[in-house]
């Protein structure tokens, strides 16, 4: 079943979320991105607008996925949310607190595409690092996380001795180690094989359901986005903005069986159609010059 995307609608950008009465008890201030722009200096006095007027709102505790063509500015949005980069204009709030660049947002866990583990530290000491920095050593918690991501037996290994997928799992465990109230994930499962990816998807859902962590995940995996998310936000091609955010109304916990239901396939088809549409046009309706590389598998 294929749905036609509604790219022109005002249903978009989270305003519908804010109006939903049933979300009132969870609060609507989980993620609030308002009129966000980012212009990079591109050398020789040139400027490059990476994102333009990004708006997104989601309730506290929500799991939100961000999908969009390669280069549309997804990582830029995440870096600004993480306080790692400064917005050119606009504002960003997380769990009711304004994000300030250079100031770590309290209770934030981050796992980026590049696992960025410290090569001289073992797996367990990499995972323990955020806790050590906070002065909360907790060996039991680290052991639990290692088991959770399936790295038992590799505690003492160095990152260089692990496969790419194992390094990513260590990176996810490290992000979870601080028991985050806000979790930012940038294509965290990108390098994993399908089986491992699905397994970790379901583990992530389990952890998320236990802890009600406000989560924003960038992904190329539409099925993964539908499986995990309360809302999927779709960004247009560069300069990116959020064209729509659709609620995923499938009961939890979602399972492997969920993925063979009509409802699941309908969401995947609808989002695939939207992604295809936004990849072929920029926001002014002109054909994008890079549409060929825009849609990722
Ligand atoms: N520090 C930077 N300086 C200049 N341009 C950048 C910088 N970071 C990202 N960009 C550009 O901004 C655009 C969006 O990048 P990014 O947010 O990484 O996209 P995505 O994550 O959606 O693939 C890209 O064209 C990229 O080259
Ligand atoms: Mg990116």
UniProtKB/TrEMBL annotation:
Keywords, sorted A to Z: ATP-binding, Hydrolase, Nucleotide-binding, Transport
Enzyme Commission designation: 3.6.3.36
Annotated InterPro entries: AAA+_ATPase, ABC_transporter-like_ATP-bd, ABC_transporter-like_CS, ABC_transporter_ATP-bind, P-loop_NTPase
Molecular function via GO: ATP binding; ATP hydrolysis activity
Residue ranges occupied by any ABC transporter domain in the UniProt entry: 34-262
Main enzyme class: hydrolase
Segments for region (Disordered): 1-21
Name this protein carries in UniProt: Putative ABC transporter ATP-binding protein
Organism: Bifidobacterium mongoliense DSM 21395
């Amino acid at each position: 079943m294929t749905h036609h995307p509604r790219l022109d609608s005002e249903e978009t950008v989270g305003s519908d979320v804010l109006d939903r009465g049933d979300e009132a008890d969870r609060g609507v201030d989980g993620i609030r991105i308002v009129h966000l722009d980012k212009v990079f200096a591109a050398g020789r006095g040139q400027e490059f607008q990476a994102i333009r007027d990004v708006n997104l709102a989601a309730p506290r505790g929500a799991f939100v996925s961000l999908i969009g063509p390669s280069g549309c500015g997804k990582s830029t949005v995440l870096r600004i949310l993480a306080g790692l980069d400064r917005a050119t204009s606009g504002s960003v709030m997380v769990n009711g607190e304004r994000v300030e660049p250079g100031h770590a947002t309290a209770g934030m866990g981050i796992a980026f595409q590049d696992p960025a583990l410290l090569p001289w530290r073992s797996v367990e000491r990499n995972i323990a690092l955020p806790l050590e920095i906070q002065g909360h050593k907790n060996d039991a918690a680290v052991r639990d996380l290692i088991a959770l991501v399936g790295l038992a037996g590799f505690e003492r290994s160095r990152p260089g001795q692990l496969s790419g997928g194992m390094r990513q799992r260590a990176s996810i465990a490290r992000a979870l180690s601080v028991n985050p109230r806000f979790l930012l994930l940038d294509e965290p499962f990108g390098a994993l094989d399908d089986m491992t990816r699905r397994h970790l998807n379901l583990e992530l859902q389990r952890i998320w359901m236990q802890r009600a962590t406000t989560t924003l995940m960038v992904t190329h995996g539409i099925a993964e986005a539908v499986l995990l998310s309360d809302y999927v936000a779709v960004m247009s091609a560069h300069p990116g903005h959020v064209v729509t955010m659709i609620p995923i109304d499938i009961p939890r916990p979602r399972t492997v069986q969920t993925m063979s239901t009509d409802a699941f396939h309908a969401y995947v088809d609808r989002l695939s159609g939207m992604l295809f549409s936004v990849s072929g046009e920029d926001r002014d309706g002109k054909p994008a010059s890079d549409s060929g590389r825009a849609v990722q598998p």
